[in-house]
Amino acid sequence: MLLLFICFFQSYSFGQKRYQFELFAERNYIGYHFDDDFLFIANRDEQYTGGFEFEWMHQLQKTKIRRGLLNPFQSSNRYFVMTFGTQLYTPYNLSDSLIILNDRPFSSYLFTSFGYTAYDVKNTRKLTVDLYLGVMGSDFPGKVQEYIHQFGDSPPANGWGNKLAEKETFIPNLRVNYQKNQLIIGPIYSSMIDWIQVTTLFELNAGCYLNAGRGGLKFSGFNHQPKSQSQIAFSPSPIARKRNSKWLMTTYFTPQFQLVGYNTSLQSLPWLSSPYQIEASIINRYVWILEAGINLSYNRFNITYLVQSRTKEFNKYQHSWHSWGGITMGFTF
Question: Nearest Cα to 227, choosing from 23, 79, 11, 6?
């Protein structure tokens, strides 16, 4: 459990991760995302137990360069992106200081990333490319969890001496994410949702940390007219309803299917020589991922709460699903 990070970094609270498809109203964005098992009801520390991510986006100056790797769309807004964060994984039993076999090993990934995001304004497409420069085996995330678990009813985290990588090891990775708006339906004029947007999304991860591909759909609901207006199912009526509230609400639901080639947080790497790794024979190569969330924005500020659930990542995990919650805060400027 990493709730102490909220106290440390509350003055930097930002938000709204990049997978939100809506275009940014301003040139820059800064955000902070925090997720943890205990942010979802009746949960506990195990499997993916939590993490945080800081994110900064800066719009690049428009140029007349031809379409290419850094300018994939002809009519695009391009952003430089930088992040810093960590991810933590633990077995079911945190308290045992002995080696725990046949369960997820203690592991963490401490990373910074650099990349770009390109928005095709005309066709409402988005491409994001990130290079992650990360480290596994750092003592810092485990020590923070051990300290935090001294307070409250959380069990002590005594097992970090048996983490997956014994010493800090450089683990790079590449992530490519593509989204395209397919359909907008509205106005509906219900009590909460006026517009519905359907987006397809695809993601590829390759490198030393995770080799996997995923794809799915994102269903978004708005209490306001979204900026993306391509392929509208039916046009707005001549008299559009105006919301009295200055708060804008967006909800979303994203079902995805992931094909896993290699997951280092479970399987280790040949040069790490770890006795705690999960055998390849019990890894589930097909994983369903469900995510739902609600975002509230006021002027340039926003806050999001989300829940994500995954099916078993390896056969001997006792539950059919593992779930956790997340909070994102941020602003554009």
Answer: 23
**CA 5, CA 205: separation in Å to the nearest integer?**
27
Pair of tokens at residue 99: 């080696």
> Position of tokens 């479970």?
266
Contact 19, 117 (CB under 8 A): no
pTM of the full structure: 0.84
> What average pLDDT does the structure give for the chain?
81
**CA 111, CA 293: separation in Å to the nearest integer?**
25
Q: Which residue has the tokens 């995954």?
A: 310
Q: Shortest CA distance to 3 belongs to which of 41, 50, 43, 46? A: 50
C-alpha angle 238-240-246 in degrees, rounded to nearest 5? 160
- What DSSP character marks residue 187? -
R_g of the chain, CA atoms, integer Å: 21
CA-to-CA distance for 225 and 240, rounded, in angstroms?
10
101: phi then psi, degrees, rounded to nearest 5:
-100, 165
The domain locations on the chain are 4-332
The residue count of the chain comes to 333
Span 4-332 CATH architecture: Beta Barrel (2.40)
The CA-based dihedral angle spanning residues 47, 5, 79, 218, taken in that order and rounded to the nearest 10 degrees: 40
Per residue, the 3-state secondary structure of 17-64, as one string, reads CCCCCCCCCCCEEEEEEEEEHHHCCCCCCCEEEEEEEEEEEEECCCCC
Secondary-structure percent of the chain, ordered helix, strand, coil, rounded to 5: 10, 50, 40
- By CB atoms closer than 10 A (0-12, 13-18, 19+), residue 258 is buried
How many CB atoms lie under 10 A from the CB of residue 279?
A: 12
Task: Judge whether 15 and 250 are in contact, CB under 8 Å.
Answer: no
Q: What is the pLDDT of residues 201-229, one digit of tens each?
A: 999 999 999 999 999 999 999 888 776 65
Paired strand residues for 260: 212
Share of the chain above pLDDT 90, in %: 34
Cβ count within 10 A of residue 99: 11
Cα distances (Å, whole numbers) of residue 172 to 211, 212, 243: 11, 14, 46
